[in-house]
Amino acid sequence: MNSRAITNATSRGQRPTPVPPAIKLRVVVRLRSTPFGKKLPLARRLAGECGRSLRTVLCWQTAYKQLGYRGLDHRRADCGLCRLYGDAELPLVVEAAVRVRHYGDLRREWRSLALPGSYETFRFWVRKIQAFGYSEPSDERGVLSA
Amino acid sequence: MPSVESAYGRFHFPDPKAWPLELVENFRRLTEPRTLQDVFVFVYSDVAGLFMEDAITALSVLPVVPGEWSTELGYPSFFFDRSVLNEHVRKFESAGYQVWLMEKPANRDSLQTGKVVNIAAARNTHARRLKWA
Question: CATH fold of B36-131, please?
Answer without folding.
Answer: MutS, DNA mismatch repair protein, domain I (3.40.1170)
